[in-house]
Amino acid sequence: MADKNKLGETRAKIREVDNRLIDALADRMALIQDVIAYKKETGIPILQPEQEAKQTKELEEHLVNNEFEEEILDVFKYIMKNSRRVQAKALFDYNVFLIGFMGAGKSTIAKELERKLEMTRIEMDELIEEKQGMKITEIFSEYGEIYFRNLESNCLIELQKVKQCIISCGGGVVLRPDNADHMKKNGRIVLLTAEPQTILDRVKDSDSRPILNNNMNVEFIDNLLGQRREKYLSVADVIVETDHKSTDEICDEIIAKLIAFDREKEAKGK
Length: 270
Description:
Blueprint: H1 2-42, H2 49-62, H3 69-91, E1 95-99, H4 106-117, E2 120-123, H5 124-132, H6 136-143, H7 145-158, E3 165-168, H8 177-184, E4 187-193, H9 196-203, H10 218-235, E5 238-241, H11 247-269
Helix pairs in contact: 1-3, 2-3, 4-11, 5-7, 6-7, 7-8, 9-10
């Protein structure tokens, strides 16, 4: 009986600790929101990986010789991960659609934004392939481009049901005016641009781009890009050049420009 009483008392103490942890975590997340609000107001860069690295180093130093060092560090990895998620919720309560010509970097940047912001990433082409059970090249070959464009439009309508996602769109998604309306209903459109030579350098070894198959040259890319340029520019809320920039620089610029766009939009609404 004594042992059972002791076990019950220990479990009660664990519940007390858990409750303190819950309160402390809630306080921490609230403070994260305060930090984001201050950064937005003062223009300080939102993403500061050096600060997270500093916090990790200080934590490691604090845990030296602690028998639970490895386990506590593992817990804090998830705390920081979810702190980034809180930041993203405070920043963007909408979807972010990445558009641009094939090879502009949409998929690469979507992956990096997913990691940095802990937002859900969706690749439209992959989603279409999954639903159709066919590769994009096979859809083009068997059913044609019009059929594929219908699939794109239907996919965008479905994506109106999701929220706070990074969505990488196919290069031709702007060819239909209605598609921009679908995206703007619950999101912002970010146009990524690149020069024709940069695009060729990025896609020349790919065989998954049906429109460029047998046309893998700067002249064709420049001509097709010229046909689409005005459509891209007319629907974009934010434009970011990707030539000669790192993924970090591009992501930082996207976030900064989206915040500025939202601030301007809010000011106009007052």
